[in-house]
Specification:
globular, transmembrane, 78% helix, transmembrane helix, membrane, 5 helices, mainly alpha
Length: 124
């Protein structure tokens, strides 16, 4: 289950990172982001984070689980207040997607916490 939490997190971030990295300029303008390089940097970071999660899931340890949990909960702490505070100005579909993404990231973080067993305690 711990590996599933890593792999599902990676499967969220890798496609989003690739999309943002190769985003067409007209879509970036539609989103209201004028410097295109900002989206490309964000895409590169998300792609790298997703690739790291995929690799870390092969042999999870305490530091990798801490990174997964911390990263996911930081994203939830960033997205959730923004959606709750400014949700009326967003299209309902976008608000629903962002709330669902926050819930999924929180569930994956708590799944990793509950399923982590330090190396010396496996099998007890």
């Amino acid at each position: 289950m711990l590996r599933a939490a890593f792999n599902l997190t990676a499967l969220l971030f890798i496609p989003v990172g690739l999309y943002l990295y190769f985003i067409p300029p007209d879509v970036a303008t539609l989103l209201g982001v004028s410097p295109l390089w900002m989206l490309r940097v964000l895409g590169g970071l998300l792609l790298a984070w997703g690739a790291f999660q995929m690799a870390a899931g092969q042999k999870p340890d305490g530091a990798k689980v801490g990174g997964l949990v911390g990263g996911n909960l930081l994203l939830v702490a960033t997205l959730l207040p923004a959606v709750l505070r400014g949700g009326e100005a967003m299209p309902p579909a976008l608000r629903t997607v962002l709330l669902a993404l926050s819930a999924l990231l929180a569930v994956l973080a708590f799944t990793a916490i509950l399923n982590y067993r330090p190396e010396g305690t496996r099998g007890r």
